[in-house]
Design goal:
The protein is α/β, with parallel strands linked by helices and 510 residues long. It has helices at residues 32-44, 49-56, 62-80, 117-147, 151-164, 169-181, 185-202, 209-228, 252-255, 264-276, 290-300, 319-331, 338-344, 359-367, 371-380, 398-409, 431-442, 455-464, 472-483, 487-509, and strands at 24-25, 28-29, 47-48, 85-86, 90-93, 279-283, 304-308, 387-391, 418-423, 445-449. Helix content is 53%, strand content 7%. Residues 1-13, 228-248 and 355-368 have low confidence and may be disordered.
């Protein structure tokens, strides 16, 4: 069995062999034969001397090959100034030699070898094995992240998978799907265009039926947004909020319906409040579609910055607001002044990554609101950002809610941002409840409350999913009763129904 372990007890001044990329040792580039020898020993482990000689000098007589190997090892030791290979009958890497191949997805970089038939075949097979392991690991990570509802974290891994297999339609669909689940339809359409162009130029074919079906779902969602507004931006929306967790093997329409159903009135009210400059409060129970409504707004407003509270934020002061303000900083064309970075560092430590906060600064961070420096930051962002959305405020930590309340109830001469918040109905005496009361007293406030879907809207939602053998008119009354008209609960019920149907069909498919 191949041995990919690294040697132990290496001296501190002896850097490891670099065998994953361009082969080298202690800044010395390794010749092809040396690289092949060391890579073989690193992967395969100790090997008889005669076997190595035959691999490296396949056209030589055994005695000549053994002599050539002896001379090669001598030159290698002289080159790097130390013994890399030890042993007599069995040769292996010296005990103090480390290498970088244990979990590396590559082997000897782009090194191309000729004249070593068996080593050529071994190198190709080992490289393929490592690519397969890397691909399987990435696929597992993507599947886990998507199942957790974190499409934003899954997307970079999916892009890496596409780089590994550029001609795989499955890899391209995965990228399209994740863009779509993030609410970024423009990114999904661009991913399809890249797939179509690559297949046309590289293999002279067109995308298959599964890819085209996914495109139709994405395109339907795009047309639905066009129907809501005549001023849709051409810029990609900025939607980091991921959908709720569900199984990645289900139809994508069950994970994210292509159209926003039954929210025309709420969307119109949201847009009126937004354009009027009032603070907009979108409220509804879990699963009613607050995030989807806010994502639709974001797709219509390219200069909007959006972030969301997350479970666990309540344990970390300023976690929710820091997420929003990091997104604001990312929109600025130039770095912030050093003085402002230092004032913001208790809230945004990455602005000064080497900063060691002293006790006084920590008291400032957790004892006094960061209102002043945050207002200065927003004033600088005024020309580049025209609105701020913070979703899932019910998850936000107390310090973030306190700062948010101070920002939204303070005089607004310093900036002209429009604000929109999404949250569940707050508990009495909670900070979120106090925030809601303060906003109502501070100035113009638009409330958008999401109600349950009625039977007709539920039927429309079901039909928009295009599920085989499922008809909205027949299913809507019972689904409305079971879900209480909650869109997420309805989708979860259909999710379970679809999964059960697939499970029953699985033995027959096998």
């Amino acid at each position: 069995m191949p041995d990919t372990r690294t040697a132990t007890a290496a001296p501190a001044d002896s850097p490891p062999l670099r065998l994953a990329g361009a082969p080298c040792c202690q800044a010395h580039a390794l010749a092809t034969q040396d690289a092949l020898l060391l890579a073989w020993l690193a992967v395969q482990g100790a090997t008889p001397r005669e076997r190595l000689a035959a691999l490296l000098w396949p056209d030589s007589e055994p005695e000549a090959a053994r002599n050539a190997l002896r001379q090669r090892l001598f030159r290698l030791k002289k080159l790097v100034g130390r013994e890399l290979v030890g042993g007599s009958v069995l040769l292996g890497l010296a005990d103090d030699v480390r290498h970088d191949l244990a979990d590396a997805p590559t082997l000897l970089g782009a090194l191309h070898v000729q004249g070593y038939p068996e080593l050529e075949a071994w190198l190709a097979a080992e490289r393929q094995r490592r690519r397969t392991v890397q691909r399987s690991a990435l696929e597992a990570q993507v599947a886990a992240l998507e199942a957790q509802g974190d499409a934003s974290a899954a997307l970079p891994l999916a892009l890496a998978l596409r780089e590994l297999e550029p001609l795989s339609e499955d890899a391209h669909r995965r990228v399209m799907r994740l863009h779509y689940l993030r609410g970024d339809r423009a990114g999904a359409l661009l991913a399809f265009d890249a797939c179509e162009a690559l297949l046309k130029h590289e293999v002279g074919t067109t995308p298959g039926t599964e890819t085209l079906a996914l495109l139709r779902t994405i395109d339907e969602g795009t047309r639905a947004i066009d129907a809501h507004t005549s001023s849709v931006s051409d810029d990609p929306p900025h939607l980091p909020q991921a959908p709720p967790p569900r199984s990645h093997s289900l139809p994508v329409t069950l994970l994210r319906p292509p159209r926003l159903i039954g929210r025309e009135t709420e969307l119109a009210l949201l847009r009126r409040g937004w354009h009027a400059g009032a603070v907009v409060l979108v409220q509804g129970e879990a699963g009613m579609g607050k995030s989807r409504l806010l994502q639709t707004l974001a797709s219509l407003a390219p200069a909007l910055v959006m972030a969301a509270g997350r479970p666990g934020d309540a344990l970390v002061p300023y976690a929710s607001m820091a997420r929003l303000l990091h997104a604001v900083v990312a929109r600025l064309p130039a770095p912030l002044p050093a003085a402002l970075r230092r004032r913001l560092a208790p809230l945004l430590p990455t602005l000064l990554p080497t900063l060691d906060l002293d006790a006084g600064m920590r008291r400032t961070a957790h004892g006094t609101p960061m209102l002043g420096p945050v207002q200065e930051l927003l004033a600088r962002a005024n020309e580049h950002v025209d609105g701020l959305v913070l979703d899932d405020v019910h998850f936000a930590d107390g310090a973030s809610v306190e700062l948010l309340q101070a920002l939204l109830t303070a005089p607004r001469q310093t900036h002209t941002f429009r604000w929109c918040l999404g949250l569940r109905p707050p508990e009495p005496l909670s900070r979120q409840h106090a925030l809601q009361g303060a906003l109502a007293s501070a100035g113009p406030l638009t409330r958008v409350s999401l109600a349950a879907l009625d039977v007709a809207q539920m039927a429309e939602l079901i039909d928009s999913l295009h599920l085989h053998g499922v008809h909205g008119a027949a299913l809507a009354p019972s689904l409305r009763q079971r879900s209480g008209g909650n869109p997420l609960f309805a989708l979860e019920t259909l999710n379970l129904k679809t999964a059960a149907t697939r499970s029953r069909r699985a033995p027959q498919a096998g």
